[in-house]
Amino acid sequence: xxxxxxxxxxxxxxxxxxxxxxxxxxxxxxxxxxxxxxxxxxxxxxxxxxxxxxxxxxxxxxxxxxxxxxxxxxxxxxxxxxxxxxxxxxxxxxxxxxxxxxxxxxxxxxxxxxxxxxxxxxxxxxxxxxxxxxxxxxxxxxxxxxxxxxxxxxxxxxxxxxxxxxxxxxxxxxxxxxxxxxxxxxxxxxxxxxxxxxxxxxxxxxxxxxxxxxxxxxxxxxxxxxxxxxxxxxxxxxxxxxxxxxxxxxxxxxxxxxxxxxxxxxxxxxxxxxxxxxxxxxxxxxxxxxxxxxxxxxxxxxxxxxxxxxxxxxxxxxxxxxxxxxxxxxxxxxxxxxxxxxxxxxxxxxxxxxxxxxxxxxxxxxxxxxxxxxxxxxxxxxxxxxxxxxxxxxxxxxxxxxxxxxxxxxxxxxxxxxxxxxxxxxxxxxxxxxxxxxxxxxxxxxxxxxxxxxxxxxxxxxxxxxxxxxxxxxxxxxxxxxxxxxxxxxxxxxxxxxxxxxxxxxxxxxxxxxxxxxxxxxxxxxxxxxxxxxxxxxxxxxxxxxxxxxxxxxxxxxxxxxxxxxxxxxxxxxxxxxxxxxxxxxxxxxxxxxxxxxxxxxxxxxxxxxxxxxxxxxxxxxxxxxxxxxxxxxxxxxxxxxxxxxxxxxxxxxxxxxxxxxxxxxxxxxxxxxxxxxxxxxxxxxxxxxxxxxxxxxxxxxxxxxxxxxxxxxxxxxxxxxxxxxxxxxxxxxxxxxxxxxxxxxxxxxxxxxxxxxxxxxxxxxxxxxxxxxxxxxxxxxxxxxxxxxxxxxxxxxxxxxxxxxxxxxxxxxxxxxxxxxxxxxxxxxxxxxxxxxxxxxxxxxxxxxxxxxxxxxxxxxxxxxxxxxxxxxxxxxxxxxxxxxxxxxxxxxxxxxxxxxxxxxxxxxxxxxxxxxxxxxxxxxxxxxxxxxxxxxxxxxxxxxxxxxxxxxxxxxxxxxxxxxxxxxxxxxxxxxxx
Length: 980
Ligand code: GAL
Ligand code: MG
Description:
Layout (H helix, E strand, L loop, with lengths): L29 H6 L8 E3 L2 E8 L15 E5 L13 E2 L18 E10 L5 E7 L2 E2 L1 E6 L2 E7 L5 E4 L7 E10 L12 E2 L3 E2 L3 E7 L6 E5 L4 E16 L2 E14 L14 E7 L2 E7 L4 E4 L2 E4 L2 E2 L2 E5 L13 H13 L4 E3 L7 H10 L2 E5 L15 H4 L10 H14 L6 E5 L8 H13 L4 E3 L20 E4 L3 H9 L7 E6 L10 H10 L3 E6 L7 E6 L2 E5 L27 H9 L3 E6 L2 E6 L6 H4 E9 L2 E8 L9 E5 L10 E9 L11 E10 L16 E4 L3 E5 L3 E6 L4 E7 L2 E2 L6 E3 L12 H6 L6 E11 L3 E11 L7 E10 L4 E9 L13 E9 L4 E8 L12 E8 H4 L12 E10 L4 E14 L3 H6 L11 E10 L20 E10 L1
Parallel strand pairs: 23-24, 23-30, 24-25, 25-26, 26-27, 28-29, 29-30
Antiparallel strand pairs: 1-14, 2-3, 2-5, 4-12, 5-11, 6-10, 6-14, 7-13, 8-9, 8-11, 15-16, 16-17, 16-18, 18-19, 20-21, 21-22, 31-32, 33-34, 34-37, 35-36, 35-38, 38-39, 40-41, 41-42, 42-43, 43-44, 45-50, 46-47, 47-48, 48-49, 49-56, 50-55, 51-52, 51-53, 53-54, 54-55, 54-56
Helix pairs in contact: 2-3, 5-6
The protein binds beta-D-galactopyranose and magnesium ion.
């Protein structure tokens, strides 16, 4: 097909398009307008639905418009890759095509869409077709005449089609190209999809209609409106008319205004009438400002407890309905999240409308990412990141993208910050766009993280940026920022806590700093949802594909699955962690009093939450009740009496649960919003029974093993490995293969940068060599002393163990180990250990798990905010957290007791604070399989009893695991095992 090559011309971005404007839908009657439902507007004609569709692999294969035969139909809106055309490709920073701007590959997939529609054309009216999102660019024909061209995938394009429209049947043709010069600016980390993926509609307008208007509010109750036409304005509080005005620039007043915050999303309704048209704009009163480096909302400090959210669905791709968006927003509200960065492009125009109404702060990002320029052979942030940011050929395009975002959402209360884009590098083009934003809108803040990257060729001017923004910075670097008094700007993390797979760990490492520094306005977790493609079911599970599963030439494997929720929106344990870390109240014990800190910025917690308490002794509930919170202003700490008098023997905890007591947007009363658990008294809650058996043990030994027999058991000790080969109790084998020393784990996504060094260091193929084993019979049993050297083929010693095993007359086994790791000078130190412990394969009839430790969720040294110490009953099956990319999961931290049992037999463990894991799968299986639908059970219950595992961290895209979360070089461990 012959085309004007606008799609390779960064000077021609839009042809025949209207100037970008604030989003609104006109109505022709007041009641319909006030209903706020666009379906009630006779000025709105949806073009969604089935369209004729012709897909071609290349524009050179597309016939001329008049010759196209359509034998397929497609839904509008949708992404064509989700409908079986073209192929999916997940790629992060790299361009999925050769870099040759502004040109794109000749092999440029495209599709022609066709829709026929009857329209009664009315005199004196104008008709505008609106596209809210088309990836990557499109050409429009109306009744075979060219009507316009546009790009910027996630922005609205509006084209006046009045002259081309006729009364009766009309034909609309839209040619969509997969790539255009704009694709160089849309290199966001996502599956790359194409098509008309958002709504398409025609607006019928009066001649001389309003084009654009702009609202500003202030906390004293004034609302000013600037309009490009004279109009009449009426302001409503709910249904009550509170003010009126007429003109092009007017001022309206709300007496005693209810201010808007994410906690109190109070909206007023502005009705605008111009000619026969009505426009309704909901508006909240709020002011954002910065004072002494602190961001204020309505004059008060507040914090952004945020997430980054993509439009993403495993079935519908970029096409997101209001219901889907509402599902996300509902889960966010239920998890105490109050802020969203629209990474990395504007969402549908109604999305921010929902945020206004439901109460979310929005960092509204322009449709820009140019990350691929750092990924060429030899590229880097320092050297090549400014390639397009400073290329004046793209100056207009970058400004256009930023302007379209700002202009469309200018009347949104929730938008408190404009983001110039993501990872575009820094250069004159962004400085220019940033200056434009500051000039156009002084009422909001500006953000652009890439400004922290300075290239060798350009000295950055960041004067137009209000916040200093980073991603994945280490906690130490944040402290450094605040220690340097030259840093005057508020600090924000547009991305932190990379939530990939099992993680994030170490949430408080950041949240504590947000608390500590008033200038730290908050942070956004990367990211909200896992991106994957649903491919039907297999082996009883949803089959999700990720990068590489589509035979892509370049791809980034499972880096797209780094969300707080699974693709189907099931929360990850990481989301539960984040929720409780963001709980609205924090309790502490001060002497004999409980204190409650109000963690909200604008509400009195006593009006919103009931506090329920439960006291446990050794994990058993002994009483519960309610604590009445005294009134507590934002950030105030109040106190209440402890609801008990005397404690008996035992380990006591009080758990305080915060329950919403009135319905709030998207969260109903009765919902648990978080909890605190406070220890009241320490004790050893589970004791190994005394050795009452006086029947002495007998044993036979040879060079390699020792068989120990007691009243009802027979254990075989392997003198070459220093651990048990067989444990037989009551005539039944308790272990199905020899027990193992274990220092490896199935790498989590957060282990991705260290796992290869673990593998290279031999941790997955250790050879334990025991020597100097001594058998020492005593009155109570038998003591075995042995020295074990843990090593591997072609490795020196990694870990030296001095182990002491005691078998009591009653069969109880006691282990104590002294371990020395990394004692290998002058050689390079080995990478930190993933874990240290023992592994047993129990018969799979050992299905039931009872433990006293951090549960009920998987818990680790740096990931147990959602869990609390309790006595939990579960099953091996239930324990499994089914990550799409299989990995270490479902261990428990801080345990003092464990029992794994079949109906009749059990193995119990007692210790001071151990970790354990039970699974139907081996760590090797989890490590070797790419998808959860591929993993196979091993036929045993795999029991890992660990001294410790390394923490989880967020190193998949964040700092290294801090030393404090790693295993020490020297440690001691004691554990008791009892069979019955
Ligand atoms: C950031 C980027 C995100 C995402 C993340 C890694 O650098 O802004 O879009 O790629 O890294 O998951
Ligand atoms: Mg990127």
